[in-house]
Amino acid sequence: MKLQYLILVLFFFSCYNQERNCKNFQSGTFEFETISSKGDTLKTYFTRANNLEVDYFDNKIDSSSVNWVSECECILKKINPKNLSQGKSIQMKILSTFEDEYIFEYSFVGDVENSSRGKAKKISDKIFNKFDN
Question: What is the predicted pLDDT for the residue at 8?
């Protein structure tokens, strides 16, 4: 009897696919929090529209071109890199979506062994400048 329940549970979970509504997160204004190596919480705001993403971090603005290769995957490339590392493109893939958040995986293009994950929260459908009053 236990074997039948186990098979039923395995069947249920093997058929489950996380729904991803990636189109909802291709544009808008977002916030992203991460923990630094020193243990500080760092918050970044960014806006994304069409083929442009603008990041606001530590009172600095940085822009990247966005090339959507599928509904849930894009390549980000800094528009004005300041060094070779910043000149490397980043691939980003949305893994799962929720009402106003998405979990994503990112790495330098071609370096999937060193990928990281993050969670971004959509705070508005509108595009705004973080430094506007």
Answer: 43
Q: 94, 102 in Cβ contact below 8 A?
A: yes
The sign of the dihedral angle between the CA atoms of 83, 52, 72, 31 is positive
**Contact 63/51 with Cβ under 8 angstroms?**
no
* pLDDT (tens digit per residue) in 73-87: 999 999 999 999 889
Domains of the chain with bracketed CATH: 18-124 (2.40.128.490)
Query: Any idea which residue has 């069409």 for tokens?
Result: 50
Sign of CA dihedral 31, 68, 88, 106: positive
DSSP-derived secondary structure for 15-73: H------GGGGSSEEEEEEEE-TTS-EEEEEEEEETTEEEEEETTEEEEEEEEESSSSE
For 16-31, what is each residue's pLDDT tens digit?
A: 455 679 999 999 999 9
